[in-house]
Design brief:
The complex is a heterodimer of chains A (622) and B (228). By secondary structure, chain A is α+β, with helices and mostly antiparallel strands. Helix content of chain A is 35%, strand content 10%. The longest helix of chain A is centred in the N-terminal third of the chain and has 26 residues, at 118-143. Chain A starts with a helix and ends in a 10-residue tail after the last helix. Chain B folds into two domains: 31-118, Carboxypeptidase-like, regulatory domain (Immunoglobulin-like, Sandwich); 123-227, Immunoglobulin-like (Sandwich). Chain B is 8% helix and 45% strand. Chain B is built from one helix and 17 strands. The relative contact order of chain B is 0.17. The chains are: A alpha+beta (622), B mainly beta (228).
């Protein structure tokens, strides 16, 4: 009993003594401005946090998004069944990030950062403002004009009047102007040199964003006139057509500044054109890429290769998550012909076209096809990839086919001939099985370990590259009515690097198509077709024929198409052993055609935001 | 002993479950609001799937506002179960196949309420007749222009295996699910669709038009049933 009393007394004494400085301790997890802004490593880690928060739309950490357009389709597992794009599709609304950046700017301009080297201090301010401009740009292309809060860091204490904190939406033109002005100012603050793996923004990234914002504003102004319903009375959505020429001029001048700067070049180091194009997107730190989301293993890797890899090359169980469509493959031109249609059917003879080798179907295709897509008969890092849906033979005057599920791996017949390849394609709903007859190469790592779940890939995602600067220059020059020689001068640099014939005159259709193939899987197409008001025409929701003979699947971009290669196994047939191809409407990957409606040109404003800020006006169709 | 414990636990659970009911639940809304989208009393057919066309109910007097969407089915009718009260009714902006009507209709709901929503369409479809001869479905329709300024982009006759027939659902039958004419002038038109590839015992058909610059199609409010 006595001992209990002693223990209690001791405990009480301890508790009383401990209190004194226990409550006065410095926090171990909250760092003051002085602690952060006196140390470059600390500042860099804060900036790295912001750099990691600006991935939107299609990117390597969201591979499922690649099925949404006409570039990729859902192979692995069940089919995708939606039809209409949602009102929130790829919507960006991140004032939390803008507030954090503004807090950062407030601190970096305060005395807390006085000990930083002046050049470095200017650079990090520029980088933060660049990321803020990029965030505004992403919001603007989603929803039109949104509130511009400037450098203000809002403070709230309980019970205060919040009406002063409510900012109305700016007009779409004013927000683009703000982004363009900011980029101009930022360019003067950022270093001129290329940064390591293009991961940090420099002067040229700011200018590339300026050019992109200007051409987006210009095309919204000009082509917005073709959809007069898509605008709001206050100009939050819709830019007057009269403003288009000035924006195009800004875009062209900014592109000229980047081109004349000479810091970047189209990547052109491998004489094999196809491999060269793959390397342009895969070789880190090359001379073409202006700004990228970089990754590093170990520590910061993603599962893009893991999901996109072909069955033969997979490092794990996963494969064929999203695979390229025939639509994309046919959009690639031929070296000396603008017609990219794959000739699988001979109309005159009313018969298949027979090929000795599957790759012969793709002879003379734009070498960028090889750099972007693994197609039947091509290789992946030197390993030939076989796609075979089955065998065909004649029976009672009709073609019949022998096919197995690709889930079973390579299946052989009694003569040990291949029936169906492990790479498919087949029509099943099995997981990890190819359903379209292609795999992606762009952004997929040649390192086999990178396609495992555990390791992941550290392939970068290219956000801006020199080719885009040339394409913006070509588009702006065309829209400004400059000489065709000038317009073609820009676009032909890209075509020459690709290894296809030059154009002698360029139309907007040519530019759209060039962008479709050059920037496939780079998060451009959705935004391009929106700003040019073509999305509701291209993705009109119309169903296409169940199989295509000589037609181009790109005419049916609402519906996804697949290419099924078959080998003739019929000793009685003169073409025994040759290859034939079926172009099929792949309802087993994408059941319903995608439909882009006029309301999809601008995402909807959430009712919760309006409840919080009644000054917000709704977008068209809302 | 064990049984008693089980029984006691069970009894406690029953009491808990029974007691918690009734206290935190609201009465469900009991007043049915219904009606049709009409022009001069004539119904207008729309797409009935995927929540394409809807009316929105709003109610004032609360700090936060959330709309109640009331979707139109394919004969242009709608119904919603609501609490009694004063509502503001708006049509979804610029979406349906009629001249946009941005005004707000005040509606007092007190018990079951029937109220049609009158719109001015661009076109009315009338004298619609379907005939099947052999394996061919034919339809005639008179398209009358009510409001000028928007041409008919597409006129289509479409079929589906279910009674939901529109430009979206007919896609399930592929390209054979419809026949189309482009840039159609007002007047009486006829279309025919080959049914020979169809295996379903019963098919349903409708005609519809796509008006330029408007996403939503306009349809025959009635669906025609075909015994194949």
């Amino acid at each position: 009993m006595k001992s209990i009393k002693i223990i209690t007394a001791l405990a009480a004494a301890l508790a009383l003594v401990a209190c004194a400085d226990f409550l006065d301790r410095e926090s171990q997890s909250i760092l003051s401005d002085e602690e952060i802004f006196s140390d470059q490593n600390m500042v860099n880690s804060v900036l790295a946090n912001y750099y990691g928060r600006v991935n939107w739309g299609q990117h390597l950490e969201a591979r499922g998004e690649y099925q949404a357009l006409d570039e990729g389709t859902r192979s692995s597992g069940g089919r995708e069944t939606w039809s209409d794009y949602s009102n929130e599709h790829w919507r960006v609304y991140d004032y939390t990030l803008i507030r954090h950046i503004n807090q950062f700017l407030q601190s970096v301009r305060s005395d807390a950062a006085a000990s930083l080297a002046p050049a470095y201090r200017k650079q990090i301010e520029g980088e933060a403002r660049f990321l803020r401009a990029w965030t505004y740009f992403n919001m603007c292309r989603c929803m039109g004009g949104m509130p511009i809060v400037g450098d203000e860091v809002f403070a709230y204490t309980g019970g205060m009047d919040i009406t002063a904190l409510r900012y109305a939406r700016s007009t779409e033109a004013a927000l683009y102007d703000y982004i363009i002005d900011e980029c101009g100012a930022i360019a003067a603050m950022l270093p001129d040199e290329r940064t390591q793996n293009a991961a940090r923004a420099n002067k040229w990234a700011a200018l590339a964003l300026k050019a992109r914002a200007a051409v987006y504003a210009a095309s919204n102004a000009r082509y917005g006139q073709t959809t007069p319903e898509v605008k709001t009375a206050g100009g939050e959505v819709g830019i007057p057509a009269a403003k288009a020429p000035e924006y195009y001029r800004t875009a062209l001048e900014t592109c000229r500044e980047i081109i004349d700067g000479g810091r970047y070049l189209l990547y052109d180091e491998n004489p094999d054109r196809g491999a060269n194009f793959y390397e342009a997107l895969a070789k880190k730190g090359n001379s073409e890429v202006i700004w990228a989301r970089d990754y590093i293993y170990p520590g910061n890797a993603h599962g893009f290769s893991n999901g996109m890899i072909s069955t033969t090359m997979r490092g794990d169980i996963d494969a064929n998550d999203i695979t390229p469509t025939l639509n994309l493959v046919e959009a690639f031109e031929r070296v000396n012909s603008r017609d990219g249609t794959l000739h699988t059917w001979d109309d005159a003879a009313n018969d298949y076209v027979y090929y000795d080798r599957p790759e012969d179907l793709f002879a003379d295709k734009d070498p960028r096809l090889y750099g972007t897509v693994v197609y039947p008969g091509s290789d992946f890092n030197g390993v030939p990839i076989t796609y075979q849906a089955g065998q065909k033979y004649r029976d009672a005057g009709e073609w019949r086919e022998r096919a197995r599920s690709a889930r079973e791996g390579d299946t052989k017949d009694e003569d040990d001939d291949l029936i169906t390849s492990e790479n498919g394609p087949d029509r099943g709903d099995d997981q990890y099985v190819n359903n379209s007859g292609f795999n992606l190469r762009k952004f997929v790592d040649y390192n086999r370990d990178a396609s495992t779940r555990g390791r992941g890939s550290d392939m970068w995602f290219v956000r801006m590259r020199y080719a885009e600067v040339l394409m913006i220059a070509a588009e702006a020059a065309l829209e400004l009515g400059r000489q065709q020689s000038e317009v073609c001068g820009y676009i032909n640099q890209i075509r020459a690097r690709a290894g296809i014939s030059a154009l002698s005159s360029t139309t907007l259709d040519d530019i759209v198509r060039e962008r479709q193939v050059e920037f496939a899987y780079e998060n451009h197409r959705w935004w391009d077709l929106r700003r040019l008001r073509r999305a509701h025409i291209v993705w009109n929701g119309n169903e296409g024929p169940a199989s295509l003979a000589a037609q181009n699947s790109n005419d049916y971009a609402s519906a996804h198409y697949a290419l099924f290669p078959y080998r003739i196994k019929d000793p009685a047939h003169p073409q025994n052993g040759k290859w034939v191809f079926d172009k099929l409407r792949s309802t087993w990957t994408c059941e319903r055609p995608h439909r882009f409606q006029l309301r999809n040109y601008y995402n909807f404003i959430n009712q919760d935001w309006i409840n919080n800020n009644p000054k917000y006006v709704k977008n068209p169709y809302q | 002993m064990k049984t008693t414990l089980h029984n006691a636990t069970f009894a406690a659970l029953v009491i808990l479950v029974a007691a918690s009911c009734g206290i935190d639940n609201y009465e469900k809304p009991a007043s049915r609001f219904s009606g049709r989208v009409t022009h001069n009393g004539q119904p207008i057919g729309v797409s009935g799937i995927d929540r394409q066309n809807f009316l929105q109910f709003w109610q004032d007097g609360y700090e936060l506002r959330t709309e109640i969407n009331c979707h139109l089915t394919q004969d242009g009718s709608y119904s919603a179960m609501l609490f009694d009260g004063d509502y503001k009714l708006v049509m979804n902006n610029n979406r349906g196949p009629w001249v946009n009507r941005p005004d707000t209709v005040a509606v007092a709901v007190n018990g079951n309420t029937v109220k049609n929503y009158e719109v001015t369409p661009y076109y009315m479809l009338s004298n619609i007749a379907y005939t099947v001869s052999g394996k061919t479905l034919s339809a005639t329709v008179t398209i009358a222009e009510i409001t000028a300024g928007r041409p008919v982009e597409t006129l289509a006759l479409m079929i589906n295996k279910t009674a939901f027939v529109d430009n979206q659902s007919s896609g399930h039958l592929g390209d054979a699910g419809w026949t189309r004419q482009s840039d159609v002038a007002p007047g009486t038109r006829s279309l025919s669709l080959d049914l020979s590839g169809q295996t379903a015992k019963t098919l349903y058909a409708r005609v519809g038009i796509k008006i330029s610059g408007i996403d939503q199609w306009q349809f025959d409010p009635q669906v025609y049933e075909i015994k194949n």
